Amino acid sequence: MEYQVVKEYQDAPKSPIQIVKGEKLQFVEESDPEGDWPNWVFCRGINKEGWVPKQILVVKNREVTVLEDYLAKEHNLTVGEILVQEHELNGWIWSKKLGNSEELAWAPLNHLCAV
Where in the sequence is the signal peptide annotated (predicted)? Predict the structure, then answer.
């Protein structure tokens, strides 16, 4: 599926969290289930921290075990760009920019319109 950027997004983190299956992290907080971004957990590890999809975690007390590899890399978006979706999760799409590169990254659906 393709999407067109309808609202600029320039908040991509400079050092996105990257985690691997089996890694142990510290639970910091969970996103508001009634807010714009449900099902995200803010985690902290050695020299890393960031938001991670709840679906790929086992949370027990304050410890988190990662169930699959994940990279929180995000696209910076300019109005008019076209993105090609690989998959969707928690209000974001894992995608590449059409005709620009093969680089995959996340983009927020509330900045996009299906074309």
Answer: none
